[in-house]
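Students often ask why we bother encoding 3D structure as a string. The short answer is that it lets us treat folding as translation between two languages. Here is a chain of 255 residues written in the first language.
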Amino acid sequence: MDIRAYLGAYRSKVGELFEAVIANNIHALETAARLLVQAVRDDKLIYVVGPGGHSSIAAEEMFCRAGGLVPISPILEQGNALSQGALRSMKMERIPGYMIPVLEYYGVGEGNVLIVVNAYGMNCATIDAAIQGKQRGAKVIGISSREFSEQIPDNHPARHPSKKNLHELGEVDVHIDSRMPFGDAVLSFEGMKQTVGPVSTLLNVFVVNELVIAAVALMCEEGIKPPVWTSANVPNGDEENQQYADAYYSRIKHL
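And here it is in the second language, the structure alphabet:
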């Protein structure tokens, strides 16, 4: 068995998917990035939520990140967190209405942007977050896989009562297709039914970072100074970040 062949196959597949994200989402990425630019221009927070399990990693990735935008307020609802129990998290993300008071608690409202990231794009928490965000006056960016959600039957227990997919919602101002293939994992092994090598988290994180890069590029083009964190682990990093810590400490719940 040549282990390197499998490792190389995984690397190649991930690279192909990254290319597909860019090729199929150029307009959506730019449109979504302009929403982020407007929020920065108006001094509004950009909320991000990954409703359910590993999708929450995308919210953490955007938050207080070296090279990332400062006014990111992650919605880190512990009911959805794997740290509170993986099976518990799965049950919580399937409860209709659960995310409605969560968005209220975090203060999502008029002028904000809400990024809803969930690779599967059809569970109750995801759909409710998008609908509630729009009802509360936010601009909503959805990130999910069309291919995956469209193959899930309407009677699947994870589905929202509306049977809608994130990319179909009128409440979503811009949808970015993460291109995650059906089943998530991409490598097959002889004698195994299950595939191995998941890509959903890699794709979610790639999309949100591409979105930040596009927003910063637009800000530079428009003469807006991008509010970006410096790594705290480089010389003078703490000093560089102090201005942002002072400005946002009372505004971002998890800061």
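Translate back mentally: The chain has one domain: 3-248. Keep this in mind for the problem set.
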